[in-house]
Write a structure and sequence with these properties.
Distance between the termini: 17 Å
Radius of gyration: 20 Å
Structural class: alpha+beta
Largest sheet: 7 strands, mixed
Helix content: 25-40%
Strand content: 25-35%
Number of helices: 10
Order of helices and strands: EEEHHEHEEHHHEHEEHHEEEEEEH
């Protein structure tokens, strides 16, 4: 990881031992590790490994998955630095968009009919996981009109895995958002009045401004704010409040009745175990530390 040093405390000798970072022995080791724990690491449900793209296309997609918002995900791996990883991934992403029915059939087999009917084709994603990337890779991501995440990995000893997002771009989703966001916002908020529109806009501005690479994903029942994975989900305004769900452990928060609530184990739209109820601009200010904590966790 760039500049990151990891140390293990030695309680016996009251010292510190540096845990040296290393690359995997072979690419398949990285793939196997991520696929086994894909939901925990990337917020993506694993669907298939080494998925064949047929005799005409003649390729094999390293991993296929479905993210928290129902977006199709392709994950490509490289042990070290490989200038072709982005182009390879885009090649497979193009194939995926031409074979939507095949992908939905796979989702139906693995996750059921409901998941297959809710696949979000407006935002397919490519995640490239590699030992490192060049500055040309980072520039290429920002030029492509696709949702692409570049993730650097390192192994520390035999037990620790580090992931670092090097670059992230929402590509075509950002273009579509500029064209549609006004209509979507009006449809959801017109009946709420100017006060609720202003409140929703303030929350949107804060969440998008937390850092680079924040992607906003529109679903019918919520709006997700995503880094590598969701860190906030905002539901359409109710009569007098907005509900925001965050990836923050409620056990680590001093819950305030009428403001924060533990919803772990309770059904709700979006993702996250901490519910924040926003009624005023003052509540937006009060929630900013929680927003930042959730962003950092993602």
């Amino acid at each position: 990881m760039s500049g990151l040093k990891l140390f293990r405390t030695d309680t016996t000798n009251c010292g510190m031992t540096e845990v040296m970072p290393r690359l995997a022995e072979i690419e398949a080791d990285v793939q196997r590790l991520v696929e086994t724990h894909m939901e925990a690491l990337l917020g993506v449900q694993f669907l298939a490994s080494e998925y064949g793209t047929g005799p005409v296309h003649a390729g094999r997609i390293d991993s296929l998955g479905l993210d928290e918002n129902g977006s199709p995900v392709i994950v490509e791996y490289k042990r070290g630095t490989d200038a072709g990883v982005i182009n390879q991934g885009l090649f497979y992403l193009s194939w995926l968009m031409d074979h939507r029915a095949e992908f939905e059939h796979l989702v139906r087999d693995r996750l059921g009919v409901t998941a297959a009917s809710q696949v979000l084709w407006s935002g397919p994603r490519l995640i490239c996981i590699a030992g490192d990337f060049t500055r040309y890779d980072v520039h290429a991501v920002r030029e492509h009109r696709r949702s692409i995440d570049l993730v650097r990995y390192r192994l520390f000893g035999s037990e620790l895995l580090g992931l670092e997002t090097v670059a992230s771009a929402s590509g075509g989703m950002r273009v579509a958002r500029r064209a549609r966001s006004g209509a979507v916002t009006r449809a959801a908020l017109d009946f709420q009045g100017a006060a609720m529109r202003g409140l929703a806009g303030a929350v949107d501005e804060v969440l998008l401004g937390l850092g680079d690479g924040v992607n906003r994903v529109e679903r019918k029942t919520y709006r997700a704010y995503q880094r590598l994975r969701n860190f906030a989900c905002v539901c359409p305004p109710q009569r007098s409040k907005l509900l925001v769900y965050l990836k923050v452990d409620p056990q680590n928060v001093d819950l305030v009745p009428g403001f924060t609530c533990d919803v772990s184990g309770l059904g709700h739209h979006g993702t996250g175990d901490l519910e924040v109820q926003v009624r005023t601009l003052r509540d937006v200010e009060r929630a900013q530390d929680l927003f930042r904590a959730s962003y950092a966790a993602a």
